[in-house]
Amino acid sequence: MPSPSYLSQEDHARISEAVAKAELQSAGEIVTILADRSDGYTDIQLVWSAAASLLVLCALVVAPAFYMGLYDQFFAGWGHEWTPRAILSLGAGLVALKFGAVFLLQFWQPLKFWLIPPPVKTARVHDRAIRAFKIGAERRTVGRTGVLIYLSMREHRAEIVADEAIATKVEPEVWGDAMAAMLTHVREGRVAEGMSAAVEKVGAIIAPHFPRADDDVNELPDRLIEV
After folding, report:
1. Quick one: which of 73, 124, 131, 218 has the most CB atoms within 10 Å?
2. Gap between the Cα atoms of 24 and 218, Å rounded
3. Transmembrane segments in this chain: where (predicted)?
4. What is the pLDDT of residues 154-181, one digit of tens each?
């Protein structure tokens, strides 16, 4: 299934212009990425399905007469003898049914992402941002002055990752203003405005530490990468 597009061509152009303008202030190179999600979370989907299966198996142990009665009512007609094999078959059938039902239900994205624990979302977004930074910005500039602004929509999380030269002079907490400026807009559905605000803040943070040289060249693309 293709990822939804959150921005129009005009929005892309607006963010690219914001990047170009911010880079006129400093030697920093700003990369922007907008992701629909940062992971497929299939492992979490399997965990919830397995947990639901275990719960139904526990329920069968606690109240076997209830499930046996349901089976007799709907499938057995005149009833039949409950042998150990029949009970095991009932348990296996319930486990398979519950596992499949919960697994399929999680293909409904609002439910799937509601069931993912927040720390897991945070960790996966962070890991994806680091991987994207290593591919698209890390050590790809002469002065090691790349910065990645990464926004993951499904998880409602964002990351700002800086190359080593910037990281030695700017503490991670300093990016808080840029994050706040971005998320204020994003929470209200103004994604392009949020990304542009973050770009502006990041440019202002970098400028005092890495002023733009006269012979500075644009080393990384200004366009937003939407994945």
Report:
1. 124
2. 10
3. 46-67, 87-108
4. 999 999 998 888 888 888 888 988 899 8
